[in-house]
Design a protein that fits this description.
GO terms for molecular function: omega-amidase activity. Its EC number is 3.5.1.3. InterPro entries: C-N_Hydrolase (IPR003010), C-N_Hydrolase_sf (IPR036526), Nit1/2_C-N_Hydrolase (IPR045254). It catalyses: 2-oxoglutaramate + H2O = 2-oxoglutarate + NH4(+); 2-oxosuccinamate + H2O = oxaloacetate + NH4(+). The chain is built from seven helices and 15 strands. The chain is α/β, with parallel strands linked by helices and 273 residues long. The strands form three sheets. Strands 1, 2, 3, 4, 5, 6 and 15 form a seven-stranded mixed sheet that branches. A six-stranded mixed sheet has the order 9-10-11-12-13-14, covered by helices on one side. It has a two-stranded antiparallel ribbon with strand order 7-8. Helix 1 packs parallel to helix 3. The longest helix has 17 residues.
Length: 273
């Protein structure tokens, strides 16, 4: 099946972001994409100072638009971090997924909050405004089961391992790495998660905006279970496409059968929630 990643240029105007995102979703569908993914924080600028201002409940304006366009195009739509979600007085970094009938299939709240301090380069603390999610998020398609993470979640190998154990063959990470961590780790982490678990990994970023307070790395990427980069964007707004070949995935798992060779008598991973 064909996967499309929309590397969207995000402005400060929510309505413009939603309109352009939906237009690119329609374009991707017209080119044969069956699963389409939007980047982290696609309806608002990325930054702790923006989260409260742009927050919505779910369902809300942004998720309603996603539901409508998914149904119109009859696709599976991964809504990036469509919104900072407000629920019970707390804010979450949330990704919603909608099916071809417009129904919401999954809602992933970012589990690992992005709190880092690299002296002289970048300091960021999501926990100043956001609360963490506490669950794994998977959804089924006629093609394969898909596991979800958001940005910083990709650094935690245990999460991807559990998705693999639960039968996921594609992991999608909407993310917004920056100009420090992007060139160092963006592709490396995707290739690591793909090879470790013999799955396809797709990471979809906003386009780079040099004038933004937080500058995203861009370079949305798809990696196959052999660890090869099979599609990659530059820094500008674009849509990239790739065909997910589950036969190739099965062949790789047969050739190097690590999933059946794990020493579960010595170690293991457990999903607690």
């Amino acid at each position: 099946f064909r996967l499309a990643l929309i590397q969207l240029h995000v402005s400060a105007v929510k309505s413009d972001n939603l309109q352009r995102a939906c237009g690119l979703v329609r374009e991707a569908s017209a080119k044969g994409a069956k699963v389409v993914a939007l980047p982290e924080c696609f309806n608002s600028p990325y930054g702790t100072q923006y989260f409260k201002e742009y927050a919505e409940k779910i369902p809300g304006e942004s998720t309603q638009k996603l539901s409508e366009v998914a149904k119109e195009c009859s696709i599976y739509l991964v809504g990036g971090r469509s919104i900072p979600e407000e629920d019970g007085g707390k804010l979450y970094n949330t990704c919603t997924v909608f099916g071809p009938d417009g129904a919401m299939l999954a809602k992933h709240r970012k589990v690992h909050l992005f709190d880092i301090n690299i002296p002289g380069k970048i300091q960021f603390k999501e926990s100043e405004t956001l609360s963490p999610g506490n669950s794994f998020s998977m959804f089924d398609t006629p093609y394969c089961k898909v596991g979800l993470g958001i940005c910083y979640d990709i650094r935690f190998a245990e999460m991807a391992q559990i998705y693999g154990q639960k039968g996921c063959q594609l992991l999608i990470y909407p993310g917004a790495f920056n100009l420090t961590t992007g060139p160092a780790h963006w592709e490396l982490l995707q290739r690591g998660r793909a090879v470790d678990n013999q799955v396809y990994v797709a990471a979809v970023s906003p386009a780079r905006d040099e004038k933004a307070s937080y500058v995203a790395w861009g370079h949305s990427t798809v990696v196959n279970p052999w660890g090869e980069v099979i599609a990659k964007a530059g820094a500008e707004e674009t849509v990239i496409y790739t065909d997910i070949d589950l036969k190739k995935l099965a062949e790789i798992r047969q050739q190097i059968p690590i999933l059946s060779q794990k020493r579960c008598d010595l170690y293991g991973r457990e999903m607690k929630k």
